[in-house]
Amino acid sequence: MTRYQPILIALGIAALLVAPIGQGNYIIYTLCSWLLFSIAAMGLNLTLGYAGQVSLAQAGFMGIGAYITALMTLNGIHWSVAALISILSSFAVGLLLGYPALRVQHHFLAFVTLAFNTLLFLVLRNEEEITGGSFGLVGMERPTFFGISTDSNLAFYYFSLVCFLLAAAAMWWILRSPWGRAFKALRENPIRAESLGLKIRRQTLLAFAIGSAFGGLAGALQTPLVQFIEPSSFALIHSLKLLLMVVVGGSGFFFGPMLGAAVVILLPEMLRFTEGYYLIIYSALVIVLMVYSPNGLIGLGQKLAEKIKPRQEARRDLKQGVQL
Amino acid sequence: MAELIQILVSGLAAGSIYALAAVGFTLLWQASQTINFAQGEFVMLPAFFVLIGMTVLGLPMWTSILLALVLSLLILGVAFKRLIVEPMLPHGTLPLVIATIALGLLLKESVKEFYGATAQPFPAIFPQTVYNVAGASVSVQDICNLVVSMLAIGGLQLFLNRTRTGRCMQASAQNPAVAEILGVNVKRMVLYTFLINAALATIASVLISPIYLAKFSNGETLGLVAFIAAIVGGFNQIRGALVGGLLIGVIDNLSAVYISAQYRAAMPLLLLIAIILLRPQGLLGTPEGRTV
Asked: Where are the bilayer-spanning segments (chain B) (predicted)?
């Protein structure tokens, strides 16, 4: 951590605290959905950016969280219990899915999660007695904590912000712990990591399961935010959207998913004048970004910063030697 | 019994078209480690080239199909390889996966915005007469689709195994470095693979669109089916993709009739998960070295 980082983070939190004051309901709603998608994207970043596995089911895990929370709160159970169960179930499903998939080649998790997300969508749509089918579930109330209701949009924003900060702190702690550092080792050089005694499969599996648990938390927040859930909010296309968030922001960077989520959620607002062409422009931008900077916007920023102020390098020729 | 025959024939016919997409998918993977998440959209798009040729330019059907083939070769073959795959290969598989996902979205949304969001009727190439064979109604269209796809895949197999260029392509896929040393123009061989994939996609598109109508969102299911077929059959074998495609077609039709129409789409997915659990190299595949 550099000298300026704590100050910058404090400034960032302060900005998040004052951001919704005096804004209309719609902007507060957008900010809330940015916060919860950031949580989901942060989890996916652990899977993708640190453990190097593609998960195409993050929206599915949000769905698990959202439906569990909805069903439990509709039955009068407090949100915090429901959210905890949501997180734990997403974690458990992640373990169950990841265990067989990670036994084999590296790209298989992508396919298993792809199949899982599609299956989950079918179940949510078809089991009408429990999930309400394609009509979805309505009437979930926003939670009340110690007599303080989060019914107003501003109150709910601060509630989401607290959840977001807790999630971000947990992620920060995970990545700083020796266990989290092992991920980086794994990503940079799996063979060396294994020779140092790291259990690659166990590490990757846990990364995926924890990443999924973050998805569960995001889902648990989505239920009280939207107060209406239906299967198509958790379809495969949303998993792809989450994947794009992580990659556009910069996978493997701590702040990448927040940036990516901001881009993906705010861009439609900014490109509203283009009407239907928004997705066309967006996907074209993603392709161009991937070609020029596979590390996303943060990677692009670093590249530009290095052009202006080159990083100190003792001997450039050594770099070539290391590669050989 | 008659019903079963009917289901089997239409299942095989649909499956053979899936196999075309799956074969292209495996070829790209072998030649350049490209997992093409836009494969479904690659099959969706040529049908619209045909429609543009017929309705906008007023060309006859076969000329339009030829036009669609040329456009597909140029856009889905050459441009896809030169502009997207080639610059990204050095960065590894992941950015490329993301780029193909974005490409799929781009193609889908472009068709939706520029051509139309509704399903478009597509001219049938083969007569749609239905014959009664031993009590089962069998349509000529299904039989023709099956024959054409089998011929295309059989021809491809012959080309890859019997011609010099085909063997060079196989060598480039198996070990690019050694192939290069032995004087094979690896880059050109990879380009051929992309062209073959585009051609297969065009054939699949022209065969399937009269049945399912041409719609911008067709790629979603087709792409998923192509993955599943490729993995079920074996990721590193053309035969595997063929068997996988046929199997998925038959299972899909069987489960629609005998299990549940609501969960029809779930059966291939369950098969995929079962295969990954029990036989990860696929039914006909040979195990690859573990990478993790």
From this structure: 7-31, 43-76, 88-107, 140-160, 190-212, 224-251, 263-282
Residue B26 included in any domain: yes
Distance, CA of A122 to CA of A136 (rounded, Å): 13
- Tell me which of B101, B217, B290 to substitute to probe the interface with A (most A C-beta atoms closer than 10 Å): B101
pLDDT value, residue B245: 92
Q: How far apart are CA B222 and CA B226, in angstroms?
A: 6
For position A244, what pLDDT does the model report? 85
A:8-37 residues touching chain B, CB 8 A cutoff = none
Instruction: Encode pLDDT of A130-178 as tens digits.
Output: 888 778 888 787 887 887 777 788 888 999 999 999 999 999 998 888 8
Query: Mutation test of the interface with chain A: which of B105, B217, B224, B235, choosing the one with the most A Cβ atoms within 10 A?
Result: B105
Least Cα separation, residue A14 to chain B (angstroms): 34
List the CATH number of the domain containing B253. 1.10.3470
Residues in chain B closer than 8 A to A120 (CB atoms): none
A111/B272 CB distance under 8 A: yes
- Residue A313 makes CB contacts below 8 A (sequence gap 6+) with A319
Domain count, chain B: 1
* Chain B partners within 8 Å of A41 (Cβ): none
Helix pair angle (B164-174, B186-212), 10° resolution: 100
Residue B183 in any domain: the answer is yes
Please tell me which of the candidates A102, A110, A276 has its beta carbon nearest to residue B113: A276
Please judge whether A294 and B266 are an interchain contact, meaning their C-beta atoms are less than 8 angstroms apart. Answer: no
- E-assigned strands of chain A? 137-138, 144-145, 148-149, 228-229
- Does the residue B146 lie in any domain? yes
CB A33 within 8 A of CB A225: yes
For residue range B172-216, what is the model confidence (pLDDT) as tens digits? 888 888 998 998 888 899 999 999 999 999 999 999 998 888 888
Q: How far is B143 from chain A (nearest CA, A)?
A: 30
Residue A55: pLDDT above 90?
Answer: no
Q: In this predicted model, what pLDDT tens digit does every residue of B4-49 receive, in sequence order?
A: 888 888 889 989 999 999 999 888 888 887 888 899 999 999 999 9
Domain that residue B11 falls in: 2-278
Question: What is the ipTM metric for this complex?
Answer: 0.82
Q: Show the domains of chain A with their CATH numbers.
A: 24-323 (1.10.3470)
Using the beta-carbon criterion (under 8 Å), do B290 and A100 form an inter-chain contact?
Answer: no
Alpha carbons within 13 A on the beta-carbon side of A27:
9
Average pLDDT, chain A: 84
Distance of CA B115 to the CA centre of its chain: 23
Q: Mind listing the pLDDT tens digit for each residue in A199-213? A: 878 888 888 999 999
Rounded to 5°, the CA angle A100-A102-A105 comes to 115
